[in-house]
Design a protein that fits this description.
Elements lengths: L6 H18 L3 H8 L8 H25 L2 H29 L8 H21 L5 H21 L5 H16 L16 H13 L16
Length: about 220
């Protein structure tokens, strides 16, 4: 009979899964712009700065906790992150997938195949082995479930916490010296005068003369 993975191994797998999840979200902004109204006030550079920061913080916090703390202390440190934040975000991606007709949404693959099953398995092990109190886990689960509920109620509008996260990412990008890049919401539509002048130029262009055509076929 194959031995079960240790709880520490599961925590490591969730930390690695979180990094992969952030990588899968690399092109999230264009998907948000195509599916939400108004378009997010959030540029690709802002989003990617935030994704890299979260991935680094997540894996470093996981490594430090598991290296320096006991198993119980590691769980007390990591469960708020993995359940209330990472698990809740993964559920939100699944809600988006179902709400928008089952089309691919950046982050849904790692959410459904890695984050959700690993966190559920971790919680089952933690409760069965009495490593932490269920009273500690329950508020974290409530916080996680509120995220997809908020996303479902918001429909095609970003929820309040998602807008706040956008502002944080924009400020972080400026603080880190990332060159400003206009968000989708700030990008104006093509100028009407420019479109009309281009159309007029095409209409006034002289037709090609027959002498400019190249005739092929052996010169008969």
């Amino acid at each position: 009979m194959a031995s079960r993975p240790s709880v520490r191994t599961i925590l490591w797998l969730i930390g690695i899964g979180f990094v992969l999840h952030e990588a899968e979200e690399w092109n999230l902004v264009s998907w948000l712009a195509a599916n939400f109204e108004p378009a997010p006030g959030f540029s690709d550079r802002d989003a990617r700065t935030l994704l890299v920061l979260f991935a680094l913080l997540g894996i470093f916090f996981t490594a430090i906790s598991l290296h320096f703390l006991s198993l119980r202390a590691s769980l007390l440190a990591l469960l708020p992150l993995f359940v209330a934040v990472v698990f809740g975000n993964a559920l939100t991606h699944i809600v988006w997938f179902l709400s928008f007709g089952g089309g691919y949404a950046p982050g849904v693959v790692t959410a459904a195949l890695l984050i959700v099953p690993l966190v559920i398995y971790l919680l089952i092990r933690v409760i069965r082995e009495r490593l932490v109190s269920p009273l500690f886990v329950l508020p974290l689960l409530v916080a996680a479930i509120l995220q997809p509920i908020g996303a479902a109620l918001a429909g095609r509008s970003l929820s309040g916490w998602q807008v706040a996260l956008q502002h944080f990412g924009s400020g972080l990008g400026r603080y880190c010296g990332v060159r400003p890049n206009r968000s989708f919401a700030d990008r104006p539509p093509p100028s009407r005068n420019l479109v009309e002048s281009d159309k007029k130029a095409r209409q006034e262009a002289p037709p090609r003369s027959a002498s400019n055509k190249v005739i092929t076929g052996g010169g008969r």
